[in-house]
Every structure is written in structure tokens, then in C-alpha cells.
UniProtKB/TrEMBL annotation:
It comes from the Bacteria. This is VOC family protein. It comes from Cytobacillus pseudoceanisediminis. It holds the Pfam family Glyoxalase. Transmembrane segments: none annotated. InterPro entries: Glyas_Bleomycin-R_OHBP_Dase, Glyas_Fos-R_dOase_dom, VOC_core. Residues 3-125 form the VOC domain.
Length: 136
């Protein structure tokens, strides 16, 4: 009945972010809109998918993660890929700041950061993971 329609990401420089997200995530632009005569947002879809991602212009950076306990933080969502090494290599080749790839047994993952310092996780589920697409 329900599914994720769009993910909204706060960005302070819409033009810079549009280029960055198009190059690094391979998104397809669907629409752009204005508010009070100024650029306000741009909507994308992921390649071969209908899930949307929208960049929304904000006056100052906003958090894309929350604090679990102490300094332990967690992102609100992650991006799933079939080949984590390929995704990692693409971002590194484009000069994107990333963490190392971590092996969690049933999945591998790493974080990366956009020009506003927004944190995002990338994961790749192993075949024995209950979250692997073939097991759902």
C-alpha cells in the first residue's frame, strides 16, 4: 500500500548541488520549481526507478542525520547499490569525501558527504542478508 515516493535533501546552493547530484548519483531531472520568483527546488528520479529525490534550497545547512547516543549518529535513510566497490570508486574518482567501506557480515557500507556536509550511507546487502532484494 505505501512506498517511498521522494526523499528531500536540504541544500544551500541549488545550482552547485544540482550539478553535484547529477554527476555523482546519476539522477534524471523531472522538474524544477520556484517560490516567490526564486529557485526553490528540483526533483529527480533514480536511474531505472521511480523513487524521487528532491533538492530543496535552504538558507543554512540542515541535518540529514540524528544522534542515537552521545556522538553516535545515524542517517535517516541509505542508498542501496548492487556493487559497492563500483559506487565507492565512482565517488572517489569524482573527489567526493567518503569513509572507508565497512564489512558488517550481511552487508557492506560506507558514508559520503555532499557539498553542504550532508551525510549519506551506501549499502550493499549480501545474499544471506534478510534485506537482500531476493529475500524480500
Amino acid at each position: 500500500m505505501f512506498k517511498v515516493g521522494s526523499i528531500f535533501i536540504p541544500v544551500t546552493d541549488l545550482e552547485r548541488s544540482k550539478k553535484w547530484y547529477e554527476v555523482n548519483l546519476g539522477l534524471t531531472k523531472v522538474d524544477e520549481w520556484q517560490e516567490n520568483g526564486a529557485d526553490h527546488g528540483v526533483g529527480y528520479v533514480f536511474e531505472n526507478d521511480v523513487t524521487g529525490l528532491a533538492l530543496i534550497k535552504t538558507e543554512k545547512p540542515q541535518p540529514t542525520e540524528f544522534t542515537v547516543k552521545g556522538k553516535n549518529k545515524n542517517v535517516y535513510y541509505n542508498f542501496e547499490v548492487d556493487n559497492i566497490q563500483q559506487a565507492y570508486d565512482r565517488l572517489k574518482q569524482n573527489g567526493v569525501e567518503t569513509t572507508d567501506i565497512h564489512d558488517y557480515g550481511i552487508m557492506k557500507g560506507f558514508d559520503f558527504f555532499d557539498p553542504d556536509g550532508n551525510t549519506f550511507s551506501v549499502v550493499s546487502e549480501e545474499m544471506n542478508s534478510p534485506y537482500h532484494k531476493d529475500n524480500l
